[in-house]
Predict the structure.
Amino acid sequence: MNNLHTKSNTVAAPHRLDCHPSISPSTSVAEIITAYHLDQSWLHTVMDYLEMDEATFVLFIACYRPKLAESPSFPFDLPTWCHDTSTEEYTRQREEVCQTHGWFGNMAAHNILHLEAILHDGSKPTLHEQWMAALKAKIKEGQEYHILDYGCGASSFGELALMLPGTRCTLAEVAPGMLDYLQWKFQSFLPERVCLHQLSLQGTTTPDRYRVRVNHQSLQDRYDAIVLADVLEHTMNPLATLGHMLTHLKTGGIILVSYPREIEGDWHTPEAYYLRDWCYRLLYRSCTKISPHIFQKQSGIKSSTIRSAIRLFSPILQKRANQFAINYFQHHGETLLYEVKRSGRIISIEELVASVGK
């Protein structure tokens, strides 16, 4: 029996956003973020979207995200066999349950649970607090404020922004399965306040690969705020991506950048690792840092000249990053292959090298 069905667009919106609160000017950012992270109703949103009953959904979490039970407000009781994922008992039970329910290979459902979960883990409140503080300081009463969440995943940043009056969000994502989920999750805001944008791929028609070139240039609007939260490290051309975003950010607009520095599997790319310092040079020289992860775009000839200069040299830097990636795959590829295999996929060093741009 396969329980990984998804809701149609005609189904009523999930209660989490049906009851979406509006924030009064007197509401503090700390109150907003505390309430958001204590709210565990997102689990029911995912459960309803996947059309699972509670008993089946509990097993799904036990197989794919048992650490969720560590939260004091977690609303379900997980089976005892998932308390220690390092045991043979866990491996045996997980395989048996996944085969029974036909869960192997359905990456869309796994990704929805994964991306919602990481938005509510212990590392996000600081980012969310910086984001909401910056928005509340910028948005004026009666003013429309257009936000782009690029590579948005489940888009907690868009969800939080919609609590503020006058905001509208463009949510840009590659994976069709995630876009279907977003359309269902945010349907009470469509199309007046939420626009979904399918990011196209260059050189491939499948979004199932991790090392893909995303056509960021398909976004040509002008934005008051942009979110790049844990996304640049997944790209093969982060400097070009960031430069495009800054071009389409209005002067005085804010951009949130969270950019981990690590190479991992085939999802945190060597190219992004190599170009990370250049990305931050671009940010620091053309923007004003207003909090650890929030930058405000400067006006004036100096900042625009810096952006133009880095755009001019970007192809040269990209070639250097590509060569760094090839060398890294040739010398450290076996470690990366092991990490990818642990995620349930098989690739080769030759495939990694072939994926590098010219």
Q: What stands out?
A: Residues 1-6, 8-15 have pLDDT under 50 and may be disordered.
